[in-house]
Amino acid sequence: MGTTSGKTVLYKWTPWEEALRVPLIIADPSHPGAKVVNTTVELPDIYPTILDLVNVPTPAWVTAKTLTPQLANNFTPSGRPAISSYLESITVRSGNFAYIRHPDASEELYNLANDPRELSNKASDPTYASKKRNWRNRSRVTLRSTHSSSRTATARQSSVLRAAMSSAAATR
Q: For 40-170, which CATH class?
């Protein structure tokens, strides 16, 4: 579970699924009943979700997506990969695949459906050559578009989120 929960000596700072995958629990009184949705989301998605749940419009500059359609059973996967980085290792995950690029240019590619513990690196397997190339290119494009605006957005997110929470508290 997400922080590796003491199962290994890897602790949290690794690029693999065991450290990255954490459960997300949302309690919303307007959507009673338990529901499990097994999909990849990212931490930035929580911001527009909170705004959505307290009926505050999400600012146009926010590129993350609200998770409220999942609560209402109207969920369609975005196809957008989840990205995680630690130091200079980068993990890009989407669907059943995880691609990892390390600072020494080494790569890892895992089919999580067949290898959930990420023990069989397919990066050097010729069968996966085109998939690896696709993931490498996809990771470069995604990283450029994601990280170029993230630092500026963080300060804005904090102020809008504080205002939204104050507004929600005032209406109770």
A: alpha beta
- Describe the crossing of helices 129-170 and 46-53 by its angle, rounded to 10 degrees: 30
Q: What predicted TM-score, i.e. pTM, was given to this entire model?
A: 0.63
Token pair in block for residue 107 = 């790569």
Dist CA 27 CA 77 (whole Å): 21
DSSP string, 76-114: ----PPEEEEETTEEEEEETTEEEEE-TTS-EEEEETTT
pLDDT values of the chain reduced to their tens digit, one per residue, 172 residues: 444 444 544 455 566 666 666 777 887 777 777 777 777 777 888 899 889 888 999 998 888 888 888 777 655 565 667 777 777 778 888 878 889 888 888 899 999 899 988 899 999 999 999 888 888 887 776 555 554 444 444 555 555 555 655 555 555 5
- 97-101 and 89-94 strand pairing: antiparallel
Domain boundaries, the chain: 40-170
Instruction: Give me the torsion for CA of 28, 33, 38, 39, rounded to 10°.
Output: -30
Q: What Å distances lie between residue 58 and 55, 121, 153, CA to CA? A: 9, 40, 12
